[in-house]
Amino acid sequence: MPETSDRKDDHIRIIEEEDVETTGAGFADVDLVHEALPEIHRDEIETSTTLFGHELSAPIVIESMTGGHPNTTKINRALAEAAQRTNVAMGVGSQRAGLEIDDEALLESYTVVRDVAPDAFLYGNVGAAQLLEYDLGDVEAAVEMIDADAMAIHLNFLQEAVQPEGDVDARGCLEAIEHVADGLSVPVIVKETGNGISRETATRLADAGVDAVDVAGQGGTTWSGIEAYRAAAVGARRQEAIGQLFRAWGVPTVVSTREAVDAHDCVIASGGVRSGLDIAKAIALGARAGGLAKPFLGPAGQGTDAVVDLIETLSLELRTAMFVTGSASVDELRSAEYVVLGRTNEYLEDRDR
């Protein structure tokens, strides 16, 4: 199996077996202001929202995780079947392997998502570094691979810097993103992979014409840490040390969300989102939806029903937060009062000076 595909299998194994979580996303520092007289019926609260014209039952995104190895087909099948049943959004992992390797079993790890989720909002995924090698037709091929409703371009340069075989040439990526955003047949989402997007970068992306920004901030799964484990396995001690040193690097998710919404009107908050309450806080901060990745991985290994159960739990947690803030709809939740405390507040204040 080629290197790119084997790497995908390594990533899933490490996430399942090793400590790859960091703290500091900032949600613990955000308090939604309680409404003691909500004057609404909890069960009549409207959690639906619209993303790129597609109505979702709740502002929940199953974030890009995997694909590119036959072992990942089962995971993507369960995630996509759950997205279909619950009407939430889902992204696939990087499609680089599917574009570059001629292998039917490998390709199925991606195509399975549309096969089992004909009506779900699904988005594809390519790396910004790969845009320097691909033309627009290649990205359209990734869209066609899963009949995608949108395409994510991921920014993972810290991860690449830790990988012994990483692609560390970031020159020209913004221009390439602008070219894709201008010419692609579906909306373009630019997403980080765990280190956040600052206000300045979100502004550059907005100016480049991208349709949404997914902040994927610091505070959840650390890809620097994951690559440190991979480096250790092949004896790349210096890269392992770099990965550990930068394990908690990045803009915290709450800070990144607040800053990104200043620059772009469609922001997805991910990175350390672990509950429906976190999603509610993200929406109050201005996000359009909240995304989770690692929390879905274990349930996906158990099967579709386990993924559906998690989505229903997240939805009820979100609905409860909406009830006790007096928010009858997601739009009203975006105007809910909140307070930011602690380190996150200090970070925001220092950034605003």
Write up what this structure looks like.
With 353 residues, the protein is α/β, with parallel strands linked by helices. It has one domain: Alpha-Beta Barrel (TIM Barrel). The protein has 16 helices and 12 strands. The strands form 3 sheets. It has an 8-stranded parallel beta barrel, surrounded by 8 helices. A two-stranded antiparallel sheet has the order 1-12. Strand 2 (49-51) and strand 3 (54-56) form a beta hairpin. Helix 2 packs parallel to helix 4 (104-116).
CATH class: Alpha Beta
| CATH third-level topology | TIM Barrel
Strand percent estimate = 5-15%
Low-confidence stretches: none
- Order of helix and strand elements from N to C terminus: HEEEEHEHHEHEHHEHEHHHEHEHHHEH
How many DSSP E strands? 12
Side by side, the strands of the main sheet go 4-5-6-7-8-9-10-11
Question: Largest sheet at a glance?
Answer: 8 strands, parallel, barrel
Radius of gyration: 19 Å
Instruction: Tell me roughly what share of residues is in helical segments.
Output: 40-55%
Q: For the record, give the distance between the C-alpha atoms at the N and C termini, rounded to a whole number.
A: 51 Å
What structural category characterises the helix and strand content? alpha/beta
| Mean pLDDT value | 96
Q: Mind telling me the CATH superfamily name? A: Aldolase class I
Total helical segments: 16
Protein traits:
353 residues; alpha/beta; TIM Barrel; eight-stranded parallel beta barrel; two-stranded antiparallel sheet; 16 helices; 12 strands; 13% strand; globular
